[in-house]
Each structure stands twice: as C-alpha cells, then as structure tokens.
Amino acid sequence: MISILTGDIIESRQADPKIWLPALETALRQSAQKFDIFRGDSFQAEVKLEDTFKTVFYLKSAMLHVNLDVRIGVGIGEKEVDALHIKNAFGSALIYSGEAFESLKRDTISVKSANLEYDNMCNIMMALSADLCGRWTSNMAEIVMTTLLHEDSNQIELARLLNRKHQSQISTALQKANYGSIKKAIDYCTQELLRL
Fold first, then answer.
1. Where are the domains of the chain?
2. Spatial separation of the C-alpha atoms in residues 194 and 2, rounded to whole Å
3. pLDDT of residue 47
4. In the prediction, which pLDDT does 10 show?
5. What CATH class is the domain 2-193?
6. For residues 190 and 184, what is the distance between their CA atoms, to the nearest angstrom?
7. Which of the ends of the chain has fewer CB neighbours closer than 10 A, N or C?
8. 103 near 119, Cβ under 8 Å?
9. How far is the C-alpha of 30 from the C-alpha of 105, rounded, in Å?
10. How open is the CA angle 63-25-165, to the nearest 5 degrees?
11. For the segment 33-88, what is each residue's pLDDT rounded down to a tens digit?
C-alpha cells in the first residue's frame, strides 16, 4: 500500500507565486517520493505509508509559513499502474485521493481508504489538528516545519538550525502551536494506518 496526496493552495491567486511556489516545491522534494505540480497551484505526491501524516503537516506548515494554507486529500491504497509521473499512474490510492480531495468542504484535510472505520476516526483527528494549525503564526509554522523535518533533533539543535538565540523560543512556539497534540494525532493515525 501507498499514500497519494492530492492538494491545492488555498487562495493562491491572491499571493505572489514567486514566494509560495518555491516553498511548495521544496517541501514536496523533501517529503515525497514522487510529485507533480499542475494547474499552477495543485499537486499530487506519493509518500510512504509511515510518512503520510507527517508529510501532510509538513506541507501544511510550509504553506502557513508563507501565510497561505493547503487543502489535502489523502488516498490510501494500491498503485496498480506505475508511471514516471503520478498523473499517469492508476490504482485505488489515486482514486481515493481524488475522492478525498473532492469531498473537502470546510475541512482542509480528508482521508479515504478501503476502511471506513479508520477513515472516520482519522478524519476527526485531522479536522481538529488542522483547526489548531489555522491559529499558527508564520514563525510557529516555520518552527513546526523544521521540527517535523528534523525529528531526531533536540530543541537546542533546532534553535541553531533556525538561527534562534535561545532554546526556549523553540519550546514556547511549539507549545503555542499545540505541536504536542498534533504530533499525537500524527503518531496515532500512522500507527493505526500501519495496522490496516
């Protein structure tokens, strides 16, 4: 099984693409196995199962860092036909991802797989976590993004990476961002996903 993420940048036309497009491309390069950007502000990405939710919030934090947001439909399933570009591949993961994306109304994250019980549980956790993300400042988003990318680093190392003088700046920002709660949701949804 694999995960396919289908997403777009919310209100991208009201922002300078010279700012957000490089941020999106960099985030996708750092987190996805394969990705395609199309229609200017839409994308598809293939990610390992175990990285699914970490990648969702990494992409979200990358866009929130440039004062935009992203909608993401997560499809979990198979990829029967592989191709150089995701847009030319086929399988249940791609179908579910498109359906999850099309189902987005007020929420910015939706998950779809062959397991409805898992989807329902995960979608509740993702909706609550995404709501917490909506309260982030650009600074909080940058710190969360760096924390997700460097999970094995302690806060002193993160402060160095982010050119912050004090470790306490990292700790305070992560607390204000409710990173602990979001990380619990990421870990739980990932753990349950790997049991499917």
1. 2-193
2. 11
3. 97
4. 97
5. alpha beta
6. 10
7. C
8. no
9. 28
10. 55
11. 999 999 889 999 999 999 999 999 999 999 999 999 999 999 999 988 777 778 77
